[in-house]
Structure to design on (361 residues):
């Protein structure tokens, strides 16, 4: 297990500024195989948890998309729900009006996310920091209102397009030339697992490319990158659009599985929850936010029967942020580096925090 963690964490042992190494990719392959084996077992023993696993995979992909643009370009987006919801609505409309073929619907859902993100990014990247975040939030809320009020139906004169506040319900599952039966949820699980794994591989390669390195350079010193000749604004828009494409893909996977496209997909609460997943998992690692997404989904499910479960979830988030600012990814790396002193390190972190609160040195 230690070797597995070591490979997954990389060679330099630092979370937050690394990209998966070759060893990390092997570890990823092992984890994908383990998840592939887990799915059929869960489907037999507890089918409900197969639904949770698919949900985890979808939100892991969504968190991965945000980490690419936040962790590597420093663009904190509070509007990723716009691309997620747009991809979901695109999938619902394509399935209802054109074809349920997955090879048609999912690429077009991804393309929808790219287009929406490109439009938002073109306007928003002119601002920085909190102003960029607020602009993305504003755009996402605009898309939410457009779906909620069914503005496309008002413009076109159609009876309904987005379904208004009811959304589009009864969305059919995908089909694949009649070869794969996606009404069997285990097949849907395998498709989601394959797409999430391929997306992670694609984004890791992109982050390791000159384009990804340029995004990191922009995150570290935007003025210097512009001074040496990089078109900073174009890099930001392209990076944001790529991230939006993967968010749209996540939406395209989510809606048919839920059989529902609802305006809530575009709401700011989805974006807020996504940021929590990112910070909880450890931004800038790509795999950390996916871990954070799994932790949040599982905690939400396990605490759903407890009164005021949001308070408990919020407490967990506060503890992680205070004592493990690099998130769950940082904890994994620390355990890899010094597993024997994990308990004493935790005590030291607690004492250090108490001293800071008291103003002691």
């Amino acid at each position: 297990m230690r070797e597995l963690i070591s490979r997954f964490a990389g060679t330099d042992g630092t979370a937050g500024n690394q990209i998966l190494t070759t060893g990390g990719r092997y570890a990823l392959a092992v984890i994908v195989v383990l998840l592939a084996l887990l799915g059929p077992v869960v489907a037999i023993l507890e089918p409900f948890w197969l639904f949770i696993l698919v949900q985890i995979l979808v939100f892991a992909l969504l968190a991965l998309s945000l980490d690419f643009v936040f962790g590597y370009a420093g663009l904190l987006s509070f509007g990723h729900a716009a691309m997620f919801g747009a991809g979901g609505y695109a999938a619902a409309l394509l399935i209802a009006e054109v074809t349920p073929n997955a090879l048609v619907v999912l690429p077009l859902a991804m393309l929808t996310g790219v287009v929406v993100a490109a439009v938002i990014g073109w306007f928003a990247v002119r601002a920085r920091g909190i102003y960029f975040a607020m602009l993305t939030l504003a755009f996402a809320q605009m898309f939410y209102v457009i779906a909620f009020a069914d503005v496309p139906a008002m413009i076109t004169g159609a009876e309904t397009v987005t379904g208004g506040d009811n959304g589009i319900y009864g969305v059919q599952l995908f089909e694949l030339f009649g070869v794969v039966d996606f009404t069997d949820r285990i097949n849907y699980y395998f498709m989601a697992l394959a797409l999430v794994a391929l997306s992670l591989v694609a984004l890791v390669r992109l982050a390791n490319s000159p384009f990804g390195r340029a995004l990191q350079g922009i995150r570290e010193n935007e003025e210097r990158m512009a001074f040496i000749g990089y078109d900073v604004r174009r890099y930001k828009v392209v990076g944001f659009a790529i991230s939006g494409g993967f968010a749209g893909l996540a939406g395209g996977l989510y809606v048919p599985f839920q059989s529902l496209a609802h305006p809530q997909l575009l709401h700011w609460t989805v974006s807020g929850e996504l940021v929590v997943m990112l910070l909880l998992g450890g931004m800038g690692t790509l795999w950390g936010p996916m871990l954070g997404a799994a932790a949040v989904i599982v905690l939400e499910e396990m605490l759903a029967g407890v009164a005021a479960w949001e308070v408990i979830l919020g407490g967990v988030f506060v503890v992680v942020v205070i004592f493990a600012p690099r998130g769950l990814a940082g904890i994994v790396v620390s355990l890899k580096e010094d597993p024997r002193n994990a308990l004493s390190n935790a005590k030291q972190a607690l004492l250090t925090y108490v001293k800071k609160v008291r103003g002691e040195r």
